[in-house]
Fold:
Amino acid sequence: MKIGIDLVRISRIVKIAGAPFSGRTQVQEQKMSDMFTADEMIHCQGKYVSLAGVWAAKEAVSKACSGVPIIYIEIHWDTNGKPFATLDTPEDGHVPYIPVSISHDGKYAVAVALVED
Ligand SMILES: CC(C)(COP(=O)(O)OP(=O)(O)OC[C@H]1O[C@@H](n2cnc3c(N)ncnc32)[C@H](O)[C@@H]1OP(=O)(O)O)[C@@H](O)C(=O)NCCC(=O)NCCS
Structure:
């Protein structure tokens, strides 16, 4: 079993995406869609704290998987709202369920991921 953890300062998302409700430039929109899937953005409903948690979860999975590119990782939620990740890489194919846990408080969001060997 491999473990990954990541801590994200919420202001980092604000820096990338622009202040909430201020409207995004095309560059900011592009950066956001490079970082988050449409479903992730819909789930987070524009809440930067939640997006920071999703980003932390992706980084945690990447860390647990020896630096796999974030582009291959997606975060989903079960019917109880519990998050999990999927991984799709050209080398290893589809990994359908990677448990992740997300928390946030104040300026930071944190996430851990567990990946089977
Ligand atoms: C969900 C819960 C863990 C949130 O705890 P909290 O201390 O208020 O908040 P945290 O910052 O630590 O965690 C929030 C994150 O937990 C995650 N989360 C949400 N629901 C979850 C669940 N059921 N299980 C695990 N994680 C959950 C989300 O990623 C959430 O982030 P988001 O709100 O930005 O999407 C807490 O309210 C709880 O234990 N609820 C029980 C809900 C449950 O399991 N219901 C199912 C029926 S039994």
